[in-house]
Amino acid sequence: MQANLQWLDDPEVFRVNQLPAHSDHHYYHDTAEFKTGSRFIKSLNGAWRFNFAKTPAERPVDFYQPDFDATDFDTIQVPGHIELAGYGQIQYINTLYPWEGKIYRRPPYTLNQDQLTPGLFSDAADNTVGSYLKTFDLDDAFKGQRIIIQFQGVEEALYVWLNGHFIGYAEDSFTPSEFDLTPYIQDQGNVLAVRVYKRSTAAFIEDQDMFRFSGIFRDVNILAEPASHITDLDIRPVPNANLKSGELNITTKVTGEPATLALTVKDHDGRVLTSQTQTGSGSVTFDTMLFDQLHLWSPQTPYLYQLTIEVYDADHQLLEVVPYQFGFRTVELRDDKVIYVNNKRLVINGVNRHEWNAHTGRVISMADMRADIQTMLANNINADRTCHYPDQLPWYQLCDEAGIYLMAENNLESHGSWQKMGAIEPSYNVPGDNPHWLAAVIDRARSNYEWFKNHPSIIFWSLGNESYAGEDIATMQAFYKEHDDSRLVHYEGVVHTSELKDRISDVESRMYEKPQNIVAYLEDNPTKPFLDCEYMHDMGNSLGGMQSYNDLIDKYPMYQGGFIWDFIDQALFVHDPITDQDVLRYGGDFDERHSDYEFSGDGLMFADRTPKPAMQEVKYYYGLHK
After folding, report:
1. Which of 175, 342, 463, 491 would disulfide-bridge 505, Cβ 3.0–4.6 Å?
2. What is the tens place of the pLDDT at every residue in 548-562?
3. What residue stretch is flagged as signal peptide (predicted)?
């Protein structure tokens, strides 16, 4: 197969040769590697050769050929944003599409439902291109194994070649993309070529309120898989009604040769609670395991059990060890139309959190993530909505450990397709009811579910943000309901399409609703509990009046709290030659008009993670309902 540039123009092409999404488990050769690091993973982070082209027509066409002369290529750091490396235009946008007022574009299959628009992005004057090259050798532990490459985040459309051979294509900027390199891998001198286009049809459904960047902005790893390998792990811990006992069901997917899987579950103190052995390949399911004297996971006591599965070959040689921490907890929407977690009414003291670093943008570190967890815990914040995309893989484990509830959101926002100049006008809304956009958004739901399905911190799946509503989003909800009965589903945009309210979202969710309107809803025999997915917009000297929302918690059991917009400013440090100091610059400060006033600066913290005075208000009021 050859790469096709026209895939950029077609919403029905969003993954080519991409491996299926799976659980986010790690694997090691033996338990000693838990501390030293797995021999089966090799980071390709660091310096890459790089070429920047302003348009697709100006890209170096054959750069992926092994004999290509790249002496005139620059060097760029991976992970990193192309724009922050000094190429292209830094641009912040709230609701519109980046090209509005400059280029006329409509989503394919909307105004004309039977055809594409040739050259929509593949021959576009505003579609910058980054061409990356990396050479690498295989470590001894990798030789003779199946070799996978994993891109944890690439914005926005990704083409991959190895040693001159086309490997695959992927969209969905915030979800890992994996490809099989095995047919073309060499022990030495491998030439990996990656082409990243800033825009494709994915741009119509990745219209989030944020700086618009491009490039390889999360980790890149190559992975070696042993002869028998657990590719997926599905952990289903279910407490009984008494919340004192429960059962555990575990299913794995094993690729390669049939293997013996030895499972052990330990409690938090390391005591063995149960063990079991199964043999096979493909789907391997363990017998149901019964537990008494359960310790439940909750924000107050985020108790985690330790699962370990050892994989042995036919000669009983250890091939790999898979560890995973999991928790027991219940999430129920009862007949009284109130949500309960572990038989206690749920109260969300939440924030919306963009991933952000004032120096590196959405390239964030473990230190950034740990600092954010500590800030949440110190200020009585018990919940995070991953606005408006899946976060880096470690974030979910950190929230499990800290006891932070998660609303795990899909990478979906199409704000500019239905809200124009402040008016609701969905004539070319996507995904809407459009069958040509359905597969792409279902794929995003599937990826979100598969990667993060084992985390007890996730109590809501969120279908996306501000994308209006239609049959496609209703089908996304049906996907989650079919695959997961242990969580609820959230989506705010159905507020615009009352005819779909029975099929989309388990909660009534509105943007910045006034307290008196929430009261009117709650006193009118409502069918769903109420949740503020965004409220208390913290722009400027704001966040006053928080008590008026807090009072609703005491008076109305069906009011379940909300998520403040938002956690941290989106701003970048820029060196000011006049003062010779590094200063924070916000949306609109980069000669990138259009912008939206100071909308990129609406966090409880400044972009350097210094708390604003508003954080004191949050700590006080959220502390009243811990």
Report:
1. 491
2. 999 999 999 999 999
3. none
- pTM comes to 0.97
Helix (H) or strand (E) holding 195: strand 190-197
534 is catalytic: yes
Number of domains comprising the chain: 1
293 found inside a domain:
no
Closest Cα partner for 259 from 455, 18, 19, 27?
A: 27
Query: Using CA atoms, how far apart are residues 426 and 420, in angstroms rounded to an integer?
Result: 9
Given 466, 492, 508, 617, the catalytic residue: 466
Selecting among 83, 513, 534, 617, the annotated active-site residue is 534
In a domain, 6, yes or no: no
Q: Is residue 192 part of a domain?
A: no
Range of 481's domain? 348-623
Interatomic CA distance for residues 474 and 501, integer angstroms: 9
- 466 included as an active-site residue: yes
What is the maximal distance between C-alpha atoms in the chain? 72
What whole-number distance in Å separates Cα of residue 530 and Cα of residue 507? 6
> Given pLDDT bands bounded at 50, 70 and 90, which one contains residue 428?
very high
Instruction: For residue 49, give the 3-state DSSP assignment.
Output: strand
Determine contact, residues 354/363, Cβ cutoff 8 Å. Answer: no
How buried is 352 (Cβ within 10 angstroms: 0-12 exposed, 13-18 middle, 19+ buried)? buried
- Let me know if residue 288 belongs to a domain: no
